[in-house]
Design brief:
The chain has 180 residues and is of the alpha+beta class. It has two domains: 95 residues, Alpha-Beta Plaits (2-Layer Sandwich), CATH 3.30.70; 70 residues, no CATH class. The chain has five helices and four strands, in the order E-H-E-H-H-H-E-H-E. A four-stranded antiparallel β-sheet has the order 2-3-1-4, covered by helices on one side. Helix 3 runs antiparallel to helix 4.
Length: 180
Amino acid sequence: MSTTKTIIYGLYGDDDLLIDGVKQLRDRGIKINEVYTPFPVHGLDKAMGLKESRMSEFAFFYGALGLTVATLLTWYTMNYDWQQNIGGKPSFTWTENMPAFIPIMFELTVFFAAHLMSITYLILNKHYPGQKPQNPDPRTTDDKFLVEISDQNYEQVKEILIATGVEEITVKKIEDEKIN
């Protein structure tokens, strides 16, 4: 058994027309799969009705993890594993010498937050190693904006896209075979 999936692409030349088009499509109940842009477009996330990102929560967690690792690392190396009397300051407790460890704690907090945020971003956006880019039109990397809509009434979507100033409309049909 095979099914046909129809994908409609609307190509815009201006970001203001894009936002207007996205708002009109959403107002008429048409679901937008994706929007491809050459640069971040302010207000597009709200126009598409996307949920607010939770990346800041991840950043806080990763920073706290880095601070914890730095604290444990400095305690382990200076107080447990390899105790030294540096500059006449004995290392009886970690808290007595903690001001000397602030640069290490700061650097590991930033290191963990930055690197783990990058990895999280790639995982959430499904950019795994060896994966081919999924950009349907290479012009969106230069100066065009593309709206992707699937499985909708073509005539209704076409009318809305034309009314909002779209430059080009492309329809792609994909055969999907399923074995039952």
